[in-house]
Amino acid sequence: MDDLRYVYAVCRPLAAPLHADLTGVGGAPPHQLVHEGLVAVVSPVPERDFGREPLRAHLEDLAWLAATARAHQNVVAALATVTCPLPLRLATVFRDDSGVRAMLEDESDRLHRILERIDGHVEWGVKVWLGSGDADGEGAAAGDAAPPSRRPPESGRDYLRRRRAGNAAREESTARAEVFARRLHGDLARYAAGARLHPVQSGPLTDAGAGRNILNSAYLVPRTWSEEFLELIGRTQGARPGLRVEVTGPWAAYSFTDDPESGAEPHGDEGAAEHQDAGGAP
């Protein structure tokens, strides 16, 4: 059974070959497939795992999915140290080299526009978290053995009074956090060539100790402005008690893989998969 072609990213021609020790999905070393000024970074993967039906089954296996995502990110991160790659969706697979070349040919104008947009830029992720204690409206006064809300209520009326006070405190704390997050987003966006507001994180995959996610955003920042961008975030740390600003990056431009002329939504996220036969395009 012939191997398929797994495509990690598209970029402009590299000035040097990929590092000899770099490995991708399944431990295979990636290589460059060049076509008319564009480079697809690819590696062979077995059809028994990445054929249409096996891949669909694998995407339900969280352990397999996590390992594949790490290998995918490993290659994209290596590329990001030497160029500004356009990451493709997780598990973008073609039948053979001719299918990859057909994609580069068919999508040439769009790919060139996106690469022009992200050239010289990196992505920074920023999240704002409201501490769980502040979200609950709890806190002990100096010298208290325990916060008032932790002490047993003295009566039913006391219980209701505490519940109303707790709800009001939570609402006020959340409102202050949202105002802070909006201002921070506006300030950071002025340093960026592009900004994205992602859905806030919630549910079982969120660390229970992290608190409530108020802002989940990404910024396409010129490399030369990254220091000023990070300094601005640093000045916000501790400015609002109970709020924590988390920064990740620099990343390849995962959140900015849309075509600036078409207005299409980004399609380079880690959670999706593409499977293409020869001649198909993602």
TrEMBL record:
InterPro entries: GvpL/GvpF. Residues 137-175, 254-282 are annotated as: Disordered. Its main location: other. Signal peptide: none annotated. Keywords: Gas vesicle. Pfam families: GvpL_GvpF. The keyword Nucleotide-binding does not apply. Residues 264-282 have a biased composition (Basic and acidic residues). It is found in: Gas vesicle. Belongs to the gas vesicle GvpF/GvpL family. This is GvpL/GvpF family gas vesicle protein. It comes from Streptomyces flavofungini. The lineage of its organism: Bacteria, Bacillati, Actinomycetota, Actinomycetes, Kitasatosporales.
